């Protein structure tokens, strides 16, 4: 049977895609259906057809899966922030474990391994220490903030996201009150006019310090003292800044920070290591799970106090400083100069003297230092972006022949691709662990230990 757009079909969901969509068949024709979960029988409306598969919108759940759950957030279906709120947390963890397992087997070609642990959360809500809220206007001209609908830049109004901290709602209420009272316009993407683009809010889970950074399409915020007056009434407020971004692009943050009140940073801890976090810093968003992930990386590194470690894509030194507590020397590499400045400050803050940091692309710094200075490593730790490691970097890692490689990954497909190269040239896949950094979302972190074959 040939299906066309707007056809209504009944589908039994038998699998889920990497982005969390339910997968089922109507008369042998594969359909991807957002918000449907394994075990559901649903009525769906076909929205787009390809030769061998199509995409459909969930209309009704006819027979719910035993694993279907009522979402905590009333905006869950419209909002693009969560993909798995309709799936029980136990099954979310199973989905993520299967995703990593499948990628390592199908892309990496690994068969003889087992995922030794899946680190989930006891309380998978209110876990994010950072949130970025876009501002705009609704059809009635009222200022709104929230999150973008999936694959669009249409704002779904929501000041109370259940993944973020409770304090976010009060802060957003105060920002919008300031904007309304002082006729400060939100940014309009279509016209490039308006001032307030986003609010970036960070929260220190240990210190309870709060940072608010307003991203603005200009150099100044009118009547800024009125905004400061409102925000400083929030308990824990530590840093209020503006960030200038006048570019017409999807990139949220610009380079220029304007202090409005208090410090330019907040502090927080991962384990017993203290970090300074500025508006531009990359810092893991789930502090509870970060401790579990980094402790696993530290365990896999097998440090005795005699090792030289290279930490590639080190950010503000989060993993580096964790490792430095048990290594002889840790060297971190990161492309963002501001992050390296933060890393050096963080080392000083903790009295850590056996950590050094270098600015540059990991795939350029490491090969250059190896060829020109003959550097070596007992252990290499990599925590690359989603695209994984550059080929030249992998090649240099192989040339350096460290005893152990600890690979921390936010994308198990590029992880599997890179491990295939490393394990084809003298390394063995020894241990694998999965850490759920993003409950209700589809992404998952993986920590892997590779050991050099004798």
From TrEMBL:
Keyword Transport part of the UniProt annotation: no
Q: Kindly give the InterPro entries that the UniProt entry links to this protein.
A: MeTrfase_TrmA_AS, NA-bd_OB-fold, SAM-dependent_MTases_sf, TRAM_dom, U5_MeTrfase_fam
Q: Where does S-adenosyl-L-methionine bind?
A: 284, 313, 334, 383
PROSITE patterns hit by this protein: SAM_MT_RNA_M5U, TRAM, TRMA_1
Question: Which segments constitute the TRAM domain?
Answer: 2-60
The active site lies at: 410, 410 (nucleophile)
GO terms of biological process kind: rRNA base methylation
Q: Which GO terms describe its molecular function?
A: rRNA (uridine-C5-)-methyltransferase activity
Q: Which UniProt keywords apply?
A: Methyltransferase, S-adenosyl-L-methionine, Transferase
Per the record, the similarity remark reads:
Belongs to the class I-like SAM-binding methyltransferase superfamily. RNA M5U methyltransferase family.
Q: What PANTHER family would the database entry show?
A: RNA M5U METHYLTRANSFERASE, TRNA (URACIL(54)-C(5))-METHYLTRANSFERASE
Q: What is this protein called?
A: 23S rRNA (Uracil-5-)-methyltransferase RumA
